[in-house]
Write a structure and sequence with these properties.
Chain lengths: 112, 114
Amino acid sequence: KQEVTQIPAALSVPEGENLVLNCSFTDSAIYNLQWFRQDPGKGLTSLLLIQSSQREQTSGRLNASLDKSSGRSTLYIAASQPGDSATYLCAVRDNYGQNFVFGPGTRLSVLP
Amino acid sequence: KAGVTQTPRYLIKTRGQQVTLSCSPISGHRSVSWYQQTPGQGLQFLFEYFSETQRNKGNFPGRFSGRQFSNSRSEMNVSTLELGDSALYLCASSLFGGASDTQYFGPGTRLTVL
């Protein structure tokens, strides 16, 4: 059974810092991995999707990497801004039932 | 292009009742997935529909069911509501649900069971 964990659970940084969020999964047979952000009381906004054959994806100040063999993905946020404050979730879709499994999220606060 | 819409946004029900939630995907999207989000369990996958057929199913009891119509709109039904069903229910749509397809989420329906 696929399990997804995220470290740290919460993170508080001053504006302008570069930061890394971590996501680990137990079964490397994944279809894809997707990073989302969720603002309080809201739905999820997709940030980046990495297919199982890819190593990384970039969008603006965000870069996500995928290492299937070690069961890890990282989300790198450059030059953080207060508007980046949100909960960041990673989700994997497995190869078997193609079910989606989400991590518990990392709650990020960027202080002005 | 309009995003994913969900109705109603808020709902209050009592134990034992049933409820139907609706999701309209982004135009052209044929895959719709449903999720339950609670503080204790986080986001959990309920089921995915594609072309009016349930393609994948999570580990939820049979009280949770869904369907998809020919226009790709989807409904989710929960029968015999329990207190533990109180949650934010999210739906997401994608083009085909393929490996390169991004999921786009709606704002969710917050269900409170009293």
